């Protein structure tokens, strides 16, 4: 049985199979994945990372996260929104990053939309949590089985992302995003 040492002593932590594959994935599950996230920049970071993950393993994306954070200036949407062709060329040439042109351009596009939202007084946090009235909804995972790739909620959120002009935010990517940021709480009890 896995244990996590916390402020109040030692707590038993049940982890899904994917979180037991490496120390990095274990730390990600224990400290990040599935906890309700409301920080605007962290939400944008997770949305970007989930977009980058499409077709790749999460372990690879998480391994490249430090380089991605540096290259995308901490996923500050106002900064990423200013990226032009010179920055795109640098990002595509850097082997430490995920160099898929569609994903790179989608990240910049999404930053521009989010920056526009901020100018209008809207936030990704408001958008993300509006579909559940600001509350996490519980999805009881079945031990040994993967979570569903998409749900009616992720399809609804993906439709609204698309309507707003976001790229690489289909229902499967959005499902991963919603569980990663705790809108859908699928942590093992």
From TrEMBL:
Q: Which SUPFAM superfamilies match?
A: DNA-glycosylase
Q: Which Gene3D superfamilies does the UniProt entry name for this protein?
A: Hypothetical protein, domain 2
Which Pfam families does its entry note? Answer: Adenine_glyco (PF03352)
Going by the entry's taxonomy, the superkingdom of the source organism is recorded as Bacteria
Name of the protein in its database record: DNA-3-methyladenine glycosylase I
Q: Which gene encodes it?
A: tag1
């Amino acid at each position: 049985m896995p244990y996590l040492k916390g402020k109040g002593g030692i707590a038993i932590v049940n982890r899904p199979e994917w979180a037991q594959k490496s120390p990095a994935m274990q730390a990600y599950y224990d400290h990040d994945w599935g906890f309700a996230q409301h920080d605007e920049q962290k939400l944008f970071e997770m949305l970007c990372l989930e977009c980058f993950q499409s077709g790749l393993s999460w372990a690879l994306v998480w391994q490249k996260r430090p380089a991605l954070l540096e290259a995308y200036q901490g996923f500050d949407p106002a900064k990423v929104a200013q990226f032009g062709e010179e920055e795109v060329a640098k990002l595509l040439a850097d082997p430490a990053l995920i160099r898929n042109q569609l994903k790179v351009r989608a990240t910049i596009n999404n930053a521009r939309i989010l920056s526009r939202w901020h100018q209008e007084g809207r936030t990704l946090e408001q958008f993300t949590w509006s579909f559940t009235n600001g509350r996490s909804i519980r999805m009881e995972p079945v031990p040994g089985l993967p979570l569903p790739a998409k749900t009616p909620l992720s399809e609804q959120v993906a439709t609204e992302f698309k309507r707003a002009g976001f790229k690489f935010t289909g229902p499967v990517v959005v499902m991963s995003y919603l569980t990663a940021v705790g809108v859908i709480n699928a942590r093992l009890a």
